[in-house]
Amino acid sequence: MTALETQVDSAAEAPAGRLGGGFLPYLAGKVGGALISLGMVILLGFFAFRLLPGDPVAKIARERPMSADQIAQLRHEYGLDKPFLAQFWDYIVNVFTGNFGTSYVYKMPVSDLIAQYFWPTILLTGTSAILAIVLGLWLGQKSAWARGSWFDKIASGSSLVLWSVPTFWLALLLLMLFGGILHWFPTGGMVTANLAPWSGAWLISIVAHLVLPVITLTAVVYAQYLMVMRASLLEEMSADYLTTARAKGLTEDEVRTKHAVPNALLPTVTIVFMHIGGLIAGAVTVEAVFSWPGLGKLTFEAIHGPDLPLLQGTFVVFSAIIIVMNLIADLVYRQLDPRIRRA
To answer: What letters, b where the CB count within 10 A reaches 16 and e where it falls short, cover 287-322?
Structure first.
C-alpha cells in the first residue's frame, strides 16, 4: 500500500469533525473567490485598455479621407462620444449579456469573432499541452530516478535552457530555419487554400501547419513540468514506504511506477491545470509569428487598432479560462490529497 493510499484510508476512517467543513463550503469558497476574480477582470478590462495610446477613430480617419462630420458620426456609432460613466455602464451590461460589442476592424460582433477563432487556439494549445505534460512528467521521473547521471544532466539542462528562451525568439528561429531555409514546413496560416474540408489533403495540411507552433509552445512549457516532477519525486525517494516496497521484492521499476510516482504527482496536478490556462493566454506571440488564426492572433491585431471591444472581449475570455483552470486545480487537488480535506 502506498503512502497516498494510507492517507486516503485514514481520511475515510476519520470522524466527520476532523474533515473540516466538508466539500460544499470549500466549493462555495473557491467559486466565490473565482467570481470575485472574474469581477475584477471585467472591471480591469474596461479601464486598462482605455489607457492605451492611440485613437481608433483617428486611425481610421488617417487611412481614408473623412470629413469632420463623418468622424463625429463614427464616434457616435462606436459610442465614444458618450460620457465615461455611460460607456462603462454600456460595457457592464454588454458583458453580462454576452455581448462584447462590434469590432472596429472586422465590423462583426466580437462574440462571433471569438467563437470563430476559439477552436484553432484550442487545437494549438491543447496539442501543445498534451505533449508538454507527457514529455515533462516522463522526463521528470526518469531524471529524478537517475539523479546525477548523464541523462539527468542533459534532460534538466536542456529543459532549463528552453524554458529561459523567449517564446517569440524561439518561434522566429524555428520559422526561419525550418520554414524559410529548409522549406520543411509552412511558414504561416492553418491550412493551404482551396483544399476540400475534411479531405485527407486538408487534414495533412493542418498537421503540417501545426508542427512549428506546437514545437514552440511545447518547448517552453514542458520544462516546468519536468522540474516540478523531478523535485517532487526526489522528496519521495527518501520515504520509508519505498524501502518497505523494495523489501517486499518489488523491482525498481515497480517501486517507481506503483509507489513513488503516484505520490509525486500531487504537486504537479496544480501546475498542470494552472499552466493550461496560461498556455492559452500565452499563445498570443506564437499565433502572431506563425499567423495562426486563433484568439492570440486576434488579440495581437486588436492591439494595433486599438480595437477596444475586441481587446476587452479577448481579455475577459483569456482571464476567465485561467480562473476556471485554477478553480479546477484547487478542486482536483483537494480530492487527491486527504490532508487538504482534513484542514
So the answer is: bbbbbbbbbbbbbbbbbebbbbbbbbbbbbbbbbbb
Residue 111: phi and psi, rounded to 5, are -60, -40
Residue owning grid cell 520544462 = 223
Write the DSSP assignment of 317-331 as a string of letters. HHHHHHHHHHHHHHH
pLDDT band at 21 (very low <50, low <70, confident <90, very high): low
What is the model's pLDDT at position 31? 92
Sign of CA dihedral 88, 89, 91, 96: positive
Average pLDDT over residues 25-40: 90
pLDDT of residue 120: 92
Helix axes 23-47, 308-336, angle to 10 degrees: 160
Cell of 20: 473540516
Mean of the per-residue pLDDT values of the chain: 82
Q: Which residues of 193-227 are buried (b: 16+ CB within 10 A; e: fewer)?
A: eeeeeeeeeeeebbeebbbbbbbbbbbbbbbbbbb
At residue 15, does pLDDT exceed 50? no
pLDDT score, position 339: 59
Cα–Cα nearest to 310, from 19, 109, 36: 109
- Reported as a single tens digit per residue, the pLDDT across 222-269 is 888 898 888 888 887 777 777 787 788 778 777 777 777 777 777 777
